[in-house]
Amino acid sequence: MLFFHRDEALNQLGEQILKATWATFPDLARNQIAMTWIVYDEPVPVNTGGALRPEEFWRYPVRGFAYRGSELFYPASIVKLFYLVAVQEWLEQGMIMPSAELDRAIRDMIVDSSNDATSLVMDMLSGTTSGPELPPGPFETWQYQRNIVNRYFQSLNWVELEGINANQKTWCDGAYGREQVFLGEQRQNRNQLTTNATARLLHSIVGGVAVSSARSQAMMALLKRSLDPADLEANSENQVSGFLGAGLPQTAQLWSKAGWMSQVRHDAAYIEIPGLRPYLLVVFTEGKTQSQNEALLPFVAQQIMKAMETLA
Question: Coiled-coil annotation: which residues (predicted)?
Answer without folding.
Answer: none
